[in-house]
């Protein structure tokens, strides 16, 4: 009886290869060795696995000198990994036999949860060396995936809605779309995050080097749970923990953390802060990781439009056809100052925009399209007639514009979108008032005379007039 | 209807009662099978399937459904022992009858006894001066709601129809259910065996009052109520209720009518809320999920809304949201519109985003939802002109919700107007019109209430002008208004 995996473990441990070690404790067989899990699982049985592992790891240590305590701890981890693999293989077998209904993903999740908490416990006791922390990354990564599988399976079994069973339930419906296991995974990962954050070891040997990756795993779960409050408190915990500067961490940790922080700021409507985070993430993102770049840009572009009124160019979006097809029509509409075009483009992209939570932000860009339209009225209005003694250089644009001119423009620009419904004058007056309130247009409305008096200096701040 | 899907009771029910293993529900034994059927029922089943009673054109499948629904309805309404099974038309006869009278709507007989409240003179209701409709006006005006002329106490027959309709919607479930009533002799044998084993599940009227103790009621599935009390206060249960403490659906229907009448009569919210909660509880313990359940929650939601009880309103909304997914009827689009309006009030952008994700293109065409979405859009762009136009066109009970945020928007609009019409004095009439006030006085009062009375200038003709220097006051008030958003029980 031999455990090839244990031999590999001994070798990698000797090399202090944390990521190598992490690759051992995975519930997915590597492409190079598709039978690894099955082979490992079949090489023992429930009755003997612990003893056999003990023998392989301790009595035939192969020159590896682990403390007795640490060795038994690894034996425990290996044994729980062994039984988790058993559950997972069983599920896969059921699916292979076309009996997906009988795959017990709950059990698979629970057993993997056992592996994760065991690892966490021994890291907490500092029995395991700091460089092995990637083992927790892998454990956490698959904990989330298995939780999702378990929740999907139970939703398939019992539907989206859980009904009351006990007499002490107040109402007929107990819960809607509950994600029980994912919520549980969130608790586990939060505590793993805590054990990284609270490590008091000197920084060279601290689990604090794992904190951003753990935070990223938590973010992933929290976003899926739609629990923004948990995200907020996570960001707070990171910010109060004494840590080395973010740029000393692996790039992948940095990019993901900046991305999630950016999305959080975005959701909290702090667009300039969001832009900062997202820009950082975009610049450091691996050049080949187009999917990630696309995700970052999904939030970065709306931020940039709102903060600087600048539109994305076709060149920027060339590598991302989906983004191009959604954002370029919007950008064109803003440029053409066409409200109808804008509404159409926003509506066309609505499913995607809503899914990505950017719809409510993007729709605000309509104000920029409107501003451009009003400015067109101003520019088309031409110049005040020259007074006697004035030269061409003194020519001033007309700044007193009848409201009716704006009304005509708004009607023209939005007529396609409002079929049958005409915009009345009072509504345009209201829109003008809002432009002034938001400082997109400087001046005031003279109610009695029915004119807009624009500021002589920069009536449309930020534009070239 | 889904009682056949969900196990009748969860394993953890009463901590101090350990169930014998044999009673533990398993997926292979649909809960209904444990019911003890009185001999007349069994005889009825036998007669239904007897060859001499067969009617050509009605196949056994249809027969199964009909039979199943009749018996279930009887069992759930507690009438298993009250119905004279010997004279009850056989299912095939009932089907035939229904086919013959398909054009004629089923007419229900009313029991007048419980209508002491509903005939209260209309003059006792305050005529509503503003656009808001009170709950009962709304209920009557809404064509989707059957007016409460509809009387309760119809017994098994209405229930049977109801179950029949539901059965049609779900073929699979239907077949699963009817399996139980397979008329084979083997089935009969099994049934009897089961009856012996599960003797403790008996719900016969004679036994319910005397022999019921906590132990055997705790081990049953959904309670089948036998109480006939129309007025029943709400108590939080600490044990499985006895059947004689729970009201079957026909009684609950009467109770709901009574509650509505009472609300119309004197708007005693404490009483009404308490009664509705107890109706909800009775529905829950009997696991009744049908059109009536939806009606109860809709009623409670609207009354709570009228009263401004947001906690209760939200609870009902949450329940309704799940109930609507079962397609039991009701007014899903109307309540979706309420949810949108509530979301505007709570200014919760991420929930609003989730809600938008939920809407289908067909939803967006529904007038109430369309209106609510237009309100949302108008507020996004601070388009106060459009907003107040929409405010006056708000359908159903929406104005009660819009009122929760309308003053906030008025303050913002006032701040905007003051800035845009800088250094002018505006006629209050203009403000009143733009901001949807019922009268100039209301507009002036609003300005005063927000501490800007110093900026009102009285004219010789007794009209008022508003000085736009009041801008900062409105800005300040608006910020304060946005801060205090009640989020209890939020959905």
From TrEMBL, chain A:
Residues 255-459 form the PCI domain. InterPro entries: Csn12-like (IPR045114), PCI_dom (IPR000717), WH-like_DNA-bd_sf (IPR036388). One of its GO terms (molecular function) is RNA binding. Gene3D superfamilies: Winged helix-like DNA-binding domain superfamily/Winged helix DNA-binding domain (1.10.10.10). Belongs to the CSN12 family. This is Protein CSN12 homolog. It comes from Microthyrium microscopicum. The lineage of its organism: Eukaryota, Fungi, Dikarya, Ascomycota, Pezizomycotina.
Automatic annotation (TrEMBL), chain B:
Gene3D superfamilies: 1.25.40.990. Residues 1-34, 96-224 are annotated as: Disordered. Residues 1-16 have a biased composition (Polar residues). InterPro entries: PCI_dom, SAC3/GANP/THP3, SAC3/GANP/THP3_conserved. It comes from the Eukaryota. Residues 113-129 have a biased composition (Low complexity). Residues 309-480 form the PCI domain. It holds the Pfam family SAC3_GANP. One of its GO terms (cellular component) is nucleus. This is SAC3/GANP domain protein. It comes from Microthyrium microscopicum. The lineage of its organism: Eukaryota, Fungi, Dikarya, Ascomycota, Pezizomycotina.
């Amino acid at each position: 009886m031999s455990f090839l995996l244990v031999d590999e473990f001994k070798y990698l441990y000797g090399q202090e290869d944390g990521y190598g070690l992490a690759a051992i404790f995975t519930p997915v067989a590597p492409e190079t060795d598709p039978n690894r899990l099955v082979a490992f699982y079949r090489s023992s049985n429930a009755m003997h696995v612990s003893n056999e592992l003990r023998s392989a790891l301790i009595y035939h240590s192969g020159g590896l000198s682990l403390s007795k305590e640490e060795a038994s701890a690894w034996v425990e981890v290996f044994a729980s990994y062994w039984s988790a693999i058993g559950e997972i293989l069983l599920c896969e077998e059921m699916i292979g036999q076309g009996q997906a209904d009988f795959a017990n993903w709950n059990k698979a999740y629970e057993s993997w949860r056992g592996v994760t908490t065991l690892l966490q416990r021994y890291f907490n006791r500092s029995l395991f060396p700091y460089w092995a922390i990637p083992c927790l990354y892998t454990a956490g990564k698959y904990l989330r995936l298995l939780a999702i599988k378990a929740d999907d399976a139970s939703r398939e079994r019992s539907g989206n809605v859980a009904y009351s069973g006990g007499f002490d339930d107040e109402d007929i419906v107990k819960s809607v779309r509950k994600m029980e296991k994912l919520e549980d995974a969130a608790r586990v990962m939060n505590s793993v995050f805590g054990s990284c954050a609270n490590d008091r070891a000197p920084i060279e040997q601290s689990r604090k080097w794992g904190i951003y990756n753990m935070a990223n795993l938590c973010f992933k779960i929290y976003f899926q749970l739609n629990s923004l409050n948990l995200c907020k408190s996570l960001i707070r915990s990171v910010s109060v923990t004494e840590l080395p500067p973010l740029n000393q961490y692996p790039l992948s940790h940095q990019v993901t953390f900046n991305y999630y922080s950016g999305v959080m700021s975005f959701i909290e409507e702090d667009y300039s802060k969001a832009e900062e985070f997202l820009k950082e993430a975009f610049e450091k993102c691996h050049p080949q990781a187009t999917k990630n770049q696309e995700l970052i840009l999904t939030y970065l572009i709306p931020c940039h439009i709102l903060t600087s009124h600048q539109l994305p160019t076709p060149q920027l979006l060339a590598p991302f056809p989906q983004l191009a097809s959604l954002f370029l029509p919007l950008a064109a509409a803003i440029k053409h100052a066409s409200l109808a075009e804008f509404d159409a483009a926003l509506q066309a992209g609505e499913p995607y925009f809503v899914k990505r939570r950017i719809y409510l932000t993007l729709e605000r860009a309509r104000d920029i399209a409107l501003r451009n339209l009003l400015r067109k009225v101003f520019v088309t209005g031409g110049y005040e007639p020259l007074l006697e003694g004035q030269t061409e250089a003194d020519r001033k644009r007309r700044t007193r514009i009848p409201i009716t001119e704006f009304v005509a423009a708004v009607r023209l620009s939005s007529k396609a979108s409002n079929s049958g419904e005409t915009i009345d004058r009072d509504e345009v007056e209201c829109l003008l008032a809002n432009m002034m309130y938001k400082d997109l247009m400087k001046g005031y409305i003279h109610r009695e005379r029915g004119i807009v008096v624009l500021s002589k200096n920069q009536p449309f701040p930020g534009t070239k007039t | 209807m889904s009682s056949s899907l969900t196990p009748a009771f969860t394993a953890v029910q009463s901590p101090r009662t350990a169930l014998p293993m044999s009673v533990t529900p398993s997926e292979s034994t649909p809960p209904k099978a444990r019911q003890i059927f009185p001999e007349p029922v069994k005889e009825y089943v036998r007669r239904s399937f007897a060859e001499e009673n067969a009617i050509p054109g009605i196949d056994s499948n249809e027969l199964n459904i009909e039979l199943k629904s009749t018996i279930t309805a009887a069992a759930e309404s507690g009438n298993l022992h009250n119905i004279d099974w010997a004279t009850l038309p056989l299912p095939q006869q009932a089907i035939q009858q229904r086919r013959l009278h398909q054009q004629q709507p089923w007419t229900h007989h009313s029991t007048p006894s419980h209508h002491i409240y509903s005939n209260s003179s209309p003059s006792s209701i305050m005529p509503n001066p503003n656009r808001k409709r009170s709950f009962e006006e709304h209920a009557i005006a809404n064509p989707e709601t059957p007016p409460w002329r509809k009387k309760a106490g119809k017994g098994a027959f209405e229930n049977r129809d109801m179950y029949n309709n539901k059965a049609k919607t779900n073929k699979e479930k239907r077949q699963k259910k009817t399996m139980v009533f397979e008329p084979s002799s083997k089935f009969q044998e099994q049934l009897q065996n089961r009856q012996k084993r599960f003797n403790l599940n008996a719900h016969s009227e004679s036994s319910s009052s005397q022999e019921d103790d906590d132990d055997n009621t705790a081990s049953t599935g959904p309670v089948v109520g036998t109480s006939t009390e129309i007025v029943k206060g709400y108590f939080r249960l600490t044990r499985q209720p006895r059947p004689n403490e729970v009201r079957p659906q026909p009684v609950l229907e009467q109770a709901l009518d009574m509650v509505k009448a009472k609300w119309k009569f004197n708007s005693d919210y404490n009483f009404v809320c308490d009664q509705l909660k107890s109706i909800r509880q009775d529905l829950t313990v009997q696991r009744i999920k049908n059109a009536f359940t939806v009606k109860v929650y809709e009623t409670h939601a609207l009354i709570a809304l009228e009263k401004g009880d947001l906690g209760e309103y939200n609870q009902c909304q949450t329940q309704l949201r799940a109930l609507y997914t079962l397609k039991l009827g009701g007014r899903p689009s109307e309540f979706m519109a309420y949810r949108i309006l509530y979301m505007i009030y709570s200014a919760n952008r991420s929930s609003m985003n989730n809600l938008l994700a939920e809407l289908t293109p067909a939803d967006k065409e529904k007038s109430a939802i369309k209106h609510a979405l237009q309100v949302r859009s108008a507020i996004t762009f601070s388009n106060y002109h459009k907003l107040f136009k929409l405010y006056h066109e708000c359908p159903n009970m929406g104005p009660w919700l819009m009122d929760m945020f309308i003053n906030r928007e008025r303050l913002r609009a006032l701040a905007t107007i003051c800035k845009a019409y800088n250094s002018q004095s505006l006629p209050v009439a203009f403000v009143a019109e733009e901001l949807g006030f019922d009268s100039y006085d209301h507009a002036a009062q609003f300005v005063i209430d927000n501490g800007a009375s110093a900026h009102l200038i009285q004219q010789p003709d007794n009209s008022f002008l508003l000085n736009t220097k009041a801008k900062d006051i409105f800005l300040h008030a608006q910020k304060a208004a946005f801060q205090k958003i009640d989020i209890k029980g939020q959905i």
